[in-house]
């Protein structure tokens, strides 16, 4: 199975590395639906930007735990309610997707 690779901005990468952030969000749109819906992955690989392939300090790997659909309000999405894929990072009670 393939890995899902998601480049992140520093603030989100560091929050996940600290364990403060347990979900990574991607817009619920056609682009991300084609890449996520109905697929299973081995791992979620989170990168700090676009590191060189041998730069392991800018990569975090987690087992694929699925996602849930959520509506969130966040400055990154202009503080408007926005439907997103909430990709689970770390341990999860419900890994149904």
Features:
35% strand; alpha+beta; RNA-binding protein; Archaeosine Trna-guanine Transglycosylase, Chain: A, domain 4; globular; 2 helices; disordered C terminus; 3-stranded antiparallel β-sheet; 97 residues
Q: What is the CATH class?
A: Mainly Beta
| CATH topology category name | Archaeosine Trna-guanine Transglycosylase, Chain: A, domain 4
Structural class category: alpha+beta
Order of helices and strands: EHEHEEEE
| Mean pLDDT score | 91
Number of strands: 6
Low-confidence stretches: 92-97
Number of helices: 2
Helix content: 10-25%
- Terminal Cα separation, in Å? 15 Å
Total domains, how many? 1
Tell me the major beta sheet. 3 strands, mixed
Q: Which descriptor suits the 3D outline?
A: globular
* Widest beta sheet: strand line-up: 1-3-4
Rg estimate, integer Å: 13 Å
Proportion of strand residues: 35-45%
Protein name: RNA-binding protein
Organism: Rhizobium miluonense
